[in-house]
Design brief:
439 residues, alpha/beta, 19 helices, 44% helix
């Protein structure tokens, strides 16, 4: 069996040094705004609303993506894929996400992608969609584009002030463009999705992941699950749901019940810290309720995945959460709560790289001490990559501002966040208090 590095060298780079199967076979689409991208790293771009009414496949096969496919076929680096280039430029032995996002596809599929004219419409194999941004949480690293609770914050309290580096305007306005259609209005993007689903997607997709917002609060999720109930055995698509697992108990029970009508149900959830630290980072979270729900899913044979968003505030208790999950695997097996490590880059002032070296190194020391015997190989690879990232990389991305501005924004943001959310930074992160107060 090939290692990830051998796969990169012998398979991907054999096509070109920038080739990635996700550009052809994977997409993330926000139907509330009509935005799309090939994975969660490149910036999203708008789908032509009139064109997609005629051809639903344009939800994925946009002119922008087709040009990026051409670049990859020629060995050129699409600018939007900088996350992977930054990791690969750390050294020849470093593995970027284009490896993980390509190896899920067959050799035949990758051959077809490389040899197909870049202007052709490609049928998806994996897809992540958000029907709307309705959400009961307002996580610190999220923003109004993905959470109605964040919108409520800005409506009540106005924009966050005196942020110097937040060039993307995460916390400045309500992101009305993220939800272009009001409740009860027909959304052409949603209708295009269901048209594509009925004709092709239910046959070609291996996995459909629904995100949000909080998808269990969207009527369109239940519309899709009802399709499976009415069309038993018509599709083999795995349904995966990104959920904060913090919603009403009756919705959680309804989801568990829906499993019987699905080829397979996976649940992806996000958390990267424990107890008070987790509840500070992910405003709206009850950590004990979340943990109870994730174990209930395991008891009902529903595969769970825990996505860590690695940010400046999680490093002190991230090792505790990893060990908690590994301990639970003694009861639920090695496949309980697959762990992925997703390094936050935006907003850049919340990146783990804003912390001084000694604080990062204390986390690295604890991460190195974790017993990895109950980890999958790819989880070990993710963990090793995070350790190297914390030790080697100095700036979150090429657009990031100089560190004094990032530190300014860190202090200004969390000072206002405490007031708005009735929180106290020092209580949640005593290890960071001295550094934080000195900013």
């Amino acid at each position: 069996m090939q290692t990830d590095l051998e796969y990169k060298q012998n398979v991907l780079d054999n096509y070109s040094s920038s080739f990635c199967g996700a550009k052809w076979y994977n997409a993330t689409i926000w139907l509330g705004s009509g935005m799309t991208t090939s994975c969660h790293h490149p910036p999203a771009h708008l789908v032509d609303i009139e064109a997609v009414k005629k051809n639903p496949k344009l939800l994925h096969n946009t002119p922008e993506k087709k040009e990026q496919r051409r670049q990859m076929q020629c060995g050129e680096r699409p600018g939007g894929c900088e996350y992977c280039w930054k990791l690969e430029d750390m050294g020849a032995d470093f593995i970027s996400d284009r490896v993980y996002k390509s190896k899920i596809y067959t050799q035949e599929e990758l051959n077809d992608a490389y040899n197909t004219d870049h202007n052709e419409d490609i049928d998806l194999r994996t897809l992540e969609i958000a029907f709307d941004r309705t959400c009961n949480f307002a996580c610190s690293y999220c923003n109004p584009a993905f959470s109605t609770t964040w919108v409520k914050d800005l409506k009540q309290n106005g924009a966050y002030k005196h942020l110097l580096s937040d060039g993307r305007g995460h916390f400045i306005h309500e992101h009305d463009s993220a939800q272009k259609f009001k409740f009860g209005e027909t959304n052409p993007y949603v209708e295009a999705f269901f048209k594509w689903w009925d004709t092709d997607l239910h046959r070609t997709l291996r996995e459909l992941r629904i995100t949000g917002g909080e998808p269990m609060m969207s009527a369109d999720l239940w519309r899709l699950l009802d399709w499976f109930k009415q069309n038993v055995d018509k599709s083999k698509t795995t349904i995966a749901i990104n959920s904060n697992l913090g919603g009403k108990a009756e919705l959680f029970d309804k989801l568990v019940e829906a499993k019987q009508h699905l080829p397979r149900l996976d649940v992806y959830t996000s958390c990267e810290a424990t107890a008070q630290a987790a509840e500070y980072i992910r405003d709206g979270l009850d950590f004990d309720y979340w943990w109870n729900n994730i174990t209930t899913l395991a008891q009902n044979d529903i595969h769970t995945h825990c996505m860590f968003t690695i940010n400046a505030l999680c490093l002190q208790t991230l090792p505790d959460l990893i060990n908690k999950i590994l301990d639970a695997r003694k009861t639920y097996g090695k496949d309980f709560a697959f762990m992925s490590y997703n390094i936050l880059r935006f907003p850049s002032f919340q990146s783990p790289l804003v912390l001084p070296h000694q604080l990062r190194e204390s986390c690295v020391t604890r991460l190195k001490q974790i017993d990895q015997t109950r980890m999958h190989d790819w989880e070990q690879g993710h963990l090793t990559r995070l350790i190297e990232y914390l030790q080697v990389v100095e700036t979150p991305h090429s657009e990031s501002f100089e560190m004094p501005k990032l530190h300014n924004d860190f202090k200004k943001f969390y000072t206002q966040y405490d007031i708005r959310r009735n929180k106290t930074f020092a209580n949640a992160f005593p290890e960071l208090e001295e550094w934080y107060e000195a900013l």
